[in-house]
Design a protein that fits this description.
The chain is an alpha/beta fold. It has a domain at 5-62 and 85-197 and 218-236 and 279-286: Rossmann fold (3-Layer(aba) Sandwich). 32% of the residues lie in helices and 26% in strands. The protein has ten helices and eleven strands. It binds S-adenosylmethionine and zinc ion. S-adenosylmethionine binds at residues 62, 64, 72, 108-110, 114, 132-134, 137, 154-156, 171-174. InterPro entries: 23S_rRNA_MeTrnsfrase_RlmA, Methyltransf_25, RlmA_N, rRNA_m1G-MeTrfase_A_prd, SAM-dependent_MTases_sf. Keywords: Methyltransferase, Transferase. Residues 104-188 form the Methyltransferase domain. GO terms for molecular function: methyltransferase activity.
Amino acid sequence: MKLSKKMQSAQLLDMNEELFKCPICSSGIEMVDHKQLVCNNMHTFDLAKTGYVNLAPQAHTTKYDRSLFEARAEVMGSGFFSPVLDKLCSIVADHVESIKQPVILDAGCGEGTHLSAIHSQMKPESVGIGLDLAKEGIAAASKAYPGIIWNVADLAAMPFQDAQIDVILNVLSPANYGEFNRLLKQGGKVVKVVPETGYLQELREAFYEGKPQKEETDPVDRFSEHFEDVETERITYKFALPEGLLAPLIRMTPLTWNAGDERVREVLSVGMNEITIDLRAIVGTRR
Ligand SMILES: C[S@@+](CC[C@H](N)C(=O)[O-])C[C@H]1O[C@@H](n2cnc3c(N)ncnc32)[C@H](O)[C@@H]1O
Ligand SMILES: [Zn+2]
């Protein structure tokens, strides 16, 4: 008999409950009756029907809503990020090769496609944990990708015990390096992906006459203040946009959030043949 998503997830949580701590009182937490996580002080967190658990102490509304994550899933499912994912898979594989049961956490995982793709290439015993503050992202991830622990939580105060994680992924999302160092095992790695100057340049040209989004400080410098043995690699290519993908591409990126409907219609009617992906992977080891 096929297990429900909730039951599958309850079993996963049961096997990995030692990774967690209560987001309210920091005490240990355990899976009870295949339906809720309960801490030593009786704070309880129910599993949703699709198996994710909400461990954010307060409800948050973010600009990342359901339609944005649907658009993101459509774009990411088109092969748009395949070369990036290949690179990330090989970085992760090199690090976890000799680890018996590696634990990988995606902090700011959105709708979960990247973590699912990377986790599926790892050894079967690997534990995947996806975390995002946007409930809609985690709900979509848990629906699409069972076999991974999905939770709603703030990456600045994550509901995990110290030194439990082998690899933290952080793709196009905010970071909290103090928290990342707390969670990583000795020798554990952070793999962060940041946009480079050409990232989605065709969209910036269409909406903002190509003005680059300027970061105030260099993300590599900031990263290097917190991690050892930092290496970076730029990943640049053009992706031929299949018919129908421009609308979800426009919808999924914060770049176009301030654009008016009229301009969006104009850009859609002109169309776009290809789009530039220009990213940097930054890898470092826990200090
Ligand atoms: C641009 S999206 C990237 C999502 C995914 N990594 C991807 O590449 O498709 C940024 C993500 O960061 C999440 N995020 C922002 N602040 C966060 C926080 N404090 N804690 C957890 N997630 C956060 C958002 O909800 C959103 O899903
Ligand atoms: Zn508690």
